[in-house]
Amino acid sequence: MCIFGIYTNLKKDAELHYTRQVVQALEDRGVPYYFDDALVKAMGAGPEASCRGRKIDVLLVLGGDGTMLTAARKYGPQGTRLLGLNMGRMGFLLDTEVENLRAAIDGILAGKYRIEKRIMLKAGILDAEGKIRASAYGLNEAVISQKKVLRIVNVHVAVNGLPVDNWRCDGLIVSTPTGSTGYSLSAGGPVVQPTVDVLLITPICPHTLQSSNIVISGNDEITVRAESDYGSTVLTLDGQDAFEIGQNETVSIKKADFGVEFIRYTDKNFFLLLKEKLAEWVIK
Amino acid sequence: MCIFGIYTNLKKDAELHYTRQVVQALEDRGVPYYFDDALVKAMGAGPEASCRGRKIDVLLVLGGDGTMLTAARKYGPQGTRLLGLNMGRMGFLLDTEVENLRAAIDGILAGKYRIEKRIMLKAGILDAEGKIRASAYGLNEAVISQKKVLRIVNVHVAVNGLPVDNWRCDGLIVSTPTGSTGYSLSAGGPVVQPTVDVLLITPICPHTLQSSNIVISGNDEITVRAESDYGSTVLTLDGQDAFEIGQNETVSIKKADFGVEFIRYTDKNFFLLLKEKLAEWVIK
Amino acid sequence: MCIFGIYTNLKKDAELHYTRQVVQALEDRGVPYYFDDALVKAMGAGPEASCRGRKIDVLLVLGGDGTMLTAARKYGPQGTRLLGLNMGRMGFLLDTEVENLRAAIDGILAGKYRIEKRIMLKAGILDAEGKIRASAYGLNEAVISQKKVLRIVNVHVAVNGLPVDNWRCDGLIVSTPTGSTGYSLSAGGPVVQPTVDVLLITPICPHTLQSSNIVISGNDEITVRAESDYGSTVLTLDGQDAFEIGQNETVSIKKADFGVEFIRYTDKNFFLLLKEKLAEWVIK
Amino acid sequence: MCIFGIYTNLKKDAELHYTRQVVQALEDRGVPYYFDDALVKAMGAGPEASCRGRKIDVLLVLGGDGTMLTAARKYGPQGTRLLGLNMGRMGFLLDTEVENLRAAIDGILAGKYRIEKRIMLKAGILDAEGKIRASAYGLNEAVISQKKVLRIVNVHVAVNGLPVDNWRCDGLIVSTPTGSTGYSLSAGGPVVQPTVDVLLITPICPHTLQSSNIVISGNDEITVRAESDYGSTVLTLDGQDAFEIGQNETVSIKKADFGVEFIRYTDKNFFLLLKEKLAEWVIK
């Protein structure tokens, strides 16, 4: 029996119009479902309706690409499969327009879908003794930068323990292929097909003319030590989760030992999607 | 009679070794001199020794390029001429090695030097009614960005009232030719010969693939309106002076109606200086 | 009395439909006119109808931006004013849609127009003794490169006799502001407002990580010496006129001592034009 | 029994000084060896001394990186292992300084070395019926461009049959990780660790602001159709082998079904090598 979870961007579905349609569709089909914590409250449900502590097989995500990033970081590590129901503009990560939610749910119940696996990052903050003090996941990228805006940070980067370079820059981006069309792209990084097993290292506005963009194997581990004259540095995942980095701490970034699984019906050409997305950027 | 001021980077000349040599040299020559405020205290002098409220003809600046930026913003508007006495690594703005201070002072007294004039920026923050609420000068660049690190800001840029573009980016740099080898360069801007009368507009990590670097006339006025979903934005001059920008405020940036005057003895080839500087960046 | 010339892109107006309309309009108004050489033949006219050897006051150019480049190189040096009658897609240099040719001619006769002056380049090839062996004009850019495709050339660049740098690259572009939206832009150069008095130096695919884009004063003179292991190098103006460069020859490039004058009725915002142009590039 | 081949860059070892040392060392050890064709003649040997038609186990390559590219294209497809004996400046592909040739030969005979496998490209030209008319290998990159210098070519690119984009540009580079530090880098491509299984697609000076650099899987096949208004286009491999492309022909590029094997003794940090190389570029 397939257990469903529902994850809604409460800004995009403020009146819960589509969320209630999803609930109704699942009720109609007699399928068990639970709500992500924020939604429990919004739906006026009790704690027994929460996904918390349960094994969710499929998470229906209502929102945009940003919503999908948050949901992937939270549910990806549990092996939950995610289907994005798009409520925004064109999304890379959302497979299905929200209007088609019933057909999508039927497809899931019939097992008629494709799985697209995406690598995620695991970033850990190590204290002076090399012990992991905190760790977190990212689907797009990990960024190490100043807490205060636009101040230079000096980053020392190693791959598998071997020094790569040190850059004086606004920050350092370590990106997955999924993240290659996001922040990494605006910092000059290459576009990577989503299923290629690599990681990207891209400094932001480096005060050096060294080669800026590096592609390494998805099996490599990156270590970053950040020095600053202007106070603390931070590790930010997907532009959403931030962790302060202490003075003698280092950050370790590598591929997570799981890949998040997206449910796919459509078989879009990644490059045409990209082209649409970029055109959208230009014609504002 | 030429009135001297002395401006010292107290980190670089912590024991005032060179500052005292400057003082001695001026005493030996019977020349009147005053201290910048911070130095008054460091020298244990009284308020009568301060530059404040006096017309300083020539300011001797001991430090590095960063010191020169601060001194230029403070003394440039008064028409004071600046001579940089270099205590750091290679500097673009500092003419003379600090060891040669006596010869340099003699040259000034004899009027045997060249003047290199550099344009400065005047940036103003305008409130909702269009009144200038605050204004400040910059020698390198004005940056408009988020207060919080690495968050996107939406900037709407106009030149002489005509819309140029709006960018979703990490920030916007408006640079002088002097600033073209600084932050602007790391954001992908061109290198401009110091005496060319232009301004540069360069977005930082724009989320768009539009043309990124724009060169306009030094007589143009740039207006920037910055929108943010994440709180306040700031205007920063030369990476040193910061001003918070209110919700309905705009920023106006144009060439100041004076140019700062640097005293020059040496006639260095700007491009070779640049090459040295960049080589220094690479071989760390 | 205003003497007109007519310059037609014979590919774009293959059946001379619009050219004949121009002729008719000039006949109707009793205005003297002559044809550019290629057009003399196409119109079946005799040599007395040719612009050759006459002082042409206003040249009507039917075609696209490329046509305007050719016409400007040929007629600009004589002080002829040019009006572009656009037969193509959006053009930066063509003021008037060809359909409005009658109103445009009336405007010229009435003197009701604006002049936009653009700087042009003068490039000279100097032999081993420093004598000018050949020279030519360009409105967009001068390019120095290999004759054989995609072979590295080693260029030594000086400005006003002072060495700037030497690059191993595919070629070197020296561009006017007008040319800044052309080849220079694809090689990574900045966009320059058309009326700013500067020149741009941009190497093509340099095998070096030095600063790539340089902005110098419009009054500077650039000297280029190109070395190649693979045979001859060439100087190309506006991508249209090519001159082989001998083994011991150098190329000198500076602003021409005249500016070409474009007749303008419309007052388009250069940046919006640019935005349209770039959008056109994306959505093919 | 290990059969050796010798491949010498006759410009770098013009007097065959090191080549004769290699011969002597192999003679001393009683090891069979043959010469590459060009060397047969230079050594004054007979046709029986030629590698041609023989299975060569290990090829000793005397020269620089460029020599290694040529040797890899010729001997890589046969499964020959290559050891580079460096006679030039720092090389990425040459493991051993030529002075250490005896120790290197001993290491090979003792089987005491490491193999570094690099992917190579196989490029084929397909005629209008889709039949392969010609094919060739490349270790660094395949470039499709105009025959005439600096003329725009319109390239239509597909990956695994799906359209990616079409660019108006100076040319298109498809690079291996090995080639990522070569021409691809000067065109703005990322640096890729040598052993990562990807290919890079990079247009040269594209007349578009679309994303320029694309990273795809090493298992993908790229198809390129090139259109030109200015005559023929060419396919060039490693900047050394050129093939004219006919009007209705397309080019197919994919990973070769073998990887060239380099013999390695030293275990250099790729990123430090790169840094040295780039520093060498700057300080000329």
UniProtKB/TrEMBL annotation, chains A, B, C, D:
Pfam families linked: NAD_kinase, NAD_kinase_C
GO biological process: NAD+ metabolic process; NADP+ biosynthetic process
Gene Ontology cellular component terms for the protein in this record: cytoplasm
Gene3D superfamilies tied to this protein: Probable inorganic polyphosphate/atp-NAD kinase, domain 1, Probable inorganic polyphosphate/atp-NAD kinase, domain 2
Active-site residues per Swiss-Prot or TrEMBL entry: D65
Enzyme Commission no: 2.7.1.23
Positions bound to NAD(+): D65, G66, N140, E141, R151, R168, D170, T181, G182, Y183, S184, L185, S186, Q240
Single Gene Ontology MF annotation: NAD binding
Recorded catalytic activity of this chain's protein: NAD(+) + ATP = ADP + NADP(+) + H(+)
Taxonomy, superkingdom: Bacteria
Major site of localization recorded for this protein: cytoplasm
Cofactor(s) for this UniProt protein: a divalent metal cation
Entry annotated with the keyword Kinase: yes
Subcellular location, record wording: Cytoplasm
Record keywords: ATP-binding, Cytoplasm, Kinase, NAD, NADP, Nucleotide-binding, Transferase
Biological role: Involved in the regulation of the intracellular balance of NAD and NADP, and is a key enzyme in the biosynthesis of NADP. Catalyzes specifically the phosphorylation on 2'-hydroxyl of the adenosine moiety of NAD to yield NADP.
Family of the protein in this entry: Belongs to the NAD kinase family.
Name of the protein in question: NAD kinase
